Amino acid sequence: DGGITQSPKYLFRKEGQNVTLSCEQNLNHDAMYWYRQDPGQGLRLIYYSQIVNDFQKGDIAEGYSVSREKKESFPLTVTSAQKNPTAFYLCATEGGMGQPQHFGDGTRLSIL
Amino acid sequence: GEDVEQSLFLSVREGDSSVINCTYTDSSSTYLYWYKQEPGAGLQLLTYIFSNMDMKQDQRLTVLLNKKDKHLSLRIADTQTGDSAIYFCAERGPVPSGTYKYIFGTGTRLKVLA
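YS: structure for the whole thing
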């Protein structure tokens, strides 16, 4: 989706290191989401934010942190506390009531 | 509990119709969605249906909703090799906090044989 940019496309993490995944959108959507996708599984919600300066934990928030200082940006930090971070991370936005979620192209995180 | 179930694999011949099925558990879901994911990419919205509808057609895609059985299906007519991908069903329903959440199925991998 051209309106949602995730970077980098590939990311490698060393032991004990925090890494930050970027998600930027120009769709003027209020709500933003982070999902984790593991092989053969559906998407699991990590964090979501419905408005600037506010965010809530999803189903698997442990070991992750987020911020929402600007409407356009919702970065996800994978901390050293996340012991199994290898996965495909997807950012999504939503324009409002009943509107479907739109997804970025994802970031694949691997352990060095 | 909340759950969205899909079969893992489907294989069809080029030119045939594909039918991908999904069952969900939350009867209060308001919208149901179908997404397509190609290798290494994000999810692309294909179509969605409001819960008070039984059917929605969009070119080669037909969505059928049986709310009584909590069953959703996606039919792709004249399936092409470019339709090979993983297809996700998702429901959107309310949560006690007053907001809502999306629940995604595990995805169905469609393989189209030439």
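YS: worth flagging: The first strand of chain B starts at residue 4 and ends at 6.
IM: good catch. Also Chain B has a mean pLDDT of 91.
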